[in-house]
């Protein structure tokens, strides 16, 4: 059952353990601190968080909307009194956010806004005057949680759902990740690929589902939704090294930051304080390659831990670990999932043939996909 769950989610399993270099304080995790009426968190409190290398959570409410700030002691450089109170207002355009701190904090924080409703959209934008100012991760199971990494203070901005971030008709705003944040990966030769994913032949175009299938295929895959690409079996994979394309690739685990009490204690130090393991990155792949091919390449080039094995019954690669975060590390419904252009395929990532220009996201779920907007797992 463990492998079945892991493969369906294309998730990481943990068989090796890393030693915890820090000493994270349990009290701050189990007992979030209420932001005082003044909004001011005193320097001495931040000094203690830094000294104890703790993860601290500060919570508040504004117009019946709950919000939390998460601070990693390891991120704190210099300390001073800071104002963590914010004003949140629901408008026709989204959630208007006003920060009462006027100066940059001097270290990164994570702002989590807990809405009272569930957004159907998987993506959101934080903008001011039509310009994107922060990246936003949309999580949450029953209601939506908006996770916003804050490095520089923008006094006022609006967070709005993005109906379809992969549509050409979507209004354009300036990208959050600037040129220096977008990484172009190096070319990888066929000799560097695993042997079971290295068949090099002439490539065919993808085949898309007509939606007429009613039964599972021989590898226990449920019918693929109409209009979505059919899986390509690795033994039939045809790679053309003469045709190189690009896609956008990212890896993130921001859901963990909303469930820190469920996280294995020895894993706290390896979770990025903004939840981003790999920001949206433009990468190169060859015609016919799979999502798993690119995952291997991206992790190798960016020095990100990744383990995988082969599962014959599902005819697919079995991802055993990404960044040393595994299935069940943050609750018994946790693990890794991947989506392409907003769709979570119902088959393994080594059976998904990439297409030029697609956006691939590996996301950690703490609730069997419900908190990352995967609707078919429930």
Characterize the overall form: elongated
Share in β-strands:
25-35%
The separation of the N and C termini measures 17 Å
CATH class of the largest domain: Mainly Beta
Helix/strand structural class: mainly beta
Number of strands: 19
Number of domains: 2
The order of strands across the largest sheet is: 1-3-4-8-12-11
Fraction of residues in helix: under 10%
Helix-strand sequence? HHEEHEEEEEEEEEEEEEHEEEE
Largest sheet: 6 strands, mixed
Query: For the residues shown, what is the average pLDDT?
Result: 84
CATH topology of the largest domain: Ferric Hydroxamate Uptake Protein, Chain A, domain 1
Summarize this structure briefly.
The chain is mainly beta and 378 residues long. The chain is built from four helices and 19 strands.
Describe the structure.
This protein is mainly β and 378 residues long. It folds into 2 domains: 2-17 and 181-372, Ferric Hydroxamate Uptake Protein, Chain A, domain 1; 27-174. It contains 4 helices and 19 strands. The strands form 5 sheets. It has a 6-stranded mixed β-sheet. Strands 6-7-13-9-10 form a 5-stranded antiparallel β-sheet, with no helix packed on it. A 4-stranded mixed β-sheet has the order 15-14-19-18. It is elongated. The relative contact order is 0.16. Residues 1-29 and 167-204 have low confidence and may be disordered.
């Amino acid at each position: 059952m463990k492998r079945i769950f892991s493969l369906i989610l294309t998730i990481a399993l943990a068989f090796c353990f890393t030693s915890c270099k820090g000493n994270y304080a349990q009290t701050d995790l189990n007992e979030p601190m209420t932001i005082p009426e003044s909004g001011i968190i005193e320097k001495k409190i931040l000094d203690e968080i830094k000294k104890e290398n703790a993860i601290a959570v500060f919570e508040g409410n504004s117009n019946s909307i709950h919000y939390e700030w998460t601070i990693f002691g390891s991120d704190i450089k210099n300390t001073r009194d800071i104002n963590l109170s914010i004003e949140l207002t629901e408008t026709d355009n989204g959630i208007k956010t006003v920060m009462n701190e006027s100066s940059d904090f001097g270290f990164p924080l994570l702002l989590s806004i807990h809405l009272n409703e569930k957004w159907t959209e998987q993506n959101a934008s934080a903008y001011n005057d039509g310009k994107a100012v922060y990246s936003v991760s949309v999580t949450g199971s029953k209601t939506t949680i908006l996770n916003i990494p804050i490095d520089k203070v923008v006094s006022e901005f609006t967070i709005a759902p993005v109906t379809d971030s992969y549509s050409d008709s979507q209004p354009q705003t300036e990208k959050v990740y600037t040129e220096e944040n977008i990484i172009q990966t190096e070319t990888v030769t066929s000799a560097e690929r695993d042997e079971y994913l290295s068949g090099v032949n002439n490539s065919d175009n993808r085949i898309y589902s007509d939606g007429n299938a009613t039964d599972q295929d021989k590898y226990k895959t449920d019918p693929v939704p109409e209009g979505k690409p059919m899986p390509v079996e690795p033994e039939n994979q045809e790679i053309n090294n003469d045709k190189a394309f690009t896609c956008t690739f990212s890896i993130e685990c921001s859901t963990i930051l909303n469930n820190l009490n469920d996280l294995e204690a020895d894993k706290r130090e390896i979770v990025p304080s903004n939840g981003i393991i790999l920001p949206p990155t433009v990468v190169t792949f060859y015609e016919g390659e799979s999502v798993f091919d690119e995952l291997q390449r991206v992790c190798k080039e960016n020095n990100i831990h990744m383990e995988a094995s082969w599962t014959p019954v599902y005819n697919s690669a079995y991802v055993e670990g990404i960044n040393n975060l595994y299935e069940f590390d943050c609750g018994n419904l946790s693990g890794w999932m991947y989506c392409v252009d907003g769709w979570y395929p119902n088959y393994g990532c080594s059976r998904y043939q990439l297409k030029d220009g697609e956006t691939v996201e590996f996301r950690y779920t703490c609730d069997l996909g419900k908190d990352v907007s995967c609707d078919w797992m429930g």
